[in-house]
Amino acid sequence: MDKEKTIDIIAKDMSISKEDAQRMYENIGSFSDILKKAVVGYFNGERKNYSYKGVSIKDIMEKENASYLNAIFSMDLLMKNPEILQFYDKFTFKKDRVIGKND
């Protein structure tokens, strides 16, 4: 799949601008091997439920009411910042901000 088509799919799936989708596309290169497999699977029509320290992509999808692709990016955030896991049940991650349960 070509870069522009991939960026268009990311923008549509995650409801973000093409500029933001471009940045997200560039971030895929820094993903762990598992998340890279999840992204490739996504573009091939597969939805595997990978997990990290007890939090799965499906968990994130349900908690954030997010798409599979958006959950992959949230999983990347958790993997790169594992200290977030101690607060994970108390917060929901939405694009550029963290929202507390009572917000």
Automatic annotation (TrEMBL):
Record organism: Finegoldia magna ATCC 53516
Highest taxon of the lineage: Bacteria
The name this protein goes by in its record: Uncharacterized protein
